[in-house]
Design a protein that fits this description.
CATH architecture: Alpha-Beta Complex
Order of helices and strands: HEEEHHHH
Number of helices: 5
Radius of gyration: 13 Å
Shape: globular
Number of domains: 1
Number of strands: 3
Helix content: 40-55%
Distance between the termini: 38 Å
Strand order of the largest sheet: 1-2-3
CATH topology: Sufe protein. Chain: A
Strand content: 15-25%
Structural class: alpha+beta
Amino acid sequence: MDLYTENILDHFKHPRGKRELADPTVSHEEVNLACGDKLTIHLAIEDGVIKEAAWEGSGCAISLGAMSILWEKLEGMPVKETAEMTAEDIIEMLGVPISKRRMKCALLCLEGVKNALK
């Protein structure tokens, strides 16, 4: 198993930021109907910056690992920069090739964050 795969599994087993947020500015639920992954993203935004982020959810190792990895980047990010993130940014953060079949799992976190910011 390579280092990046181990990283995703570590984030899956020990998710960062997985909790409720007391007073979020926005909350959004994103679901992957194909495999049942579900993420609820909570963001506290102040002066155009994500001051605090949290999430809850269930799903496969890729979707939850990706959300945990993205969470590490979110706090302190300008909303504009966050809204401009791409699928390629997420794949680069994960560091492993993602099959076409699992791409929706890997990108669920990004879809959820972007939809929360709309």
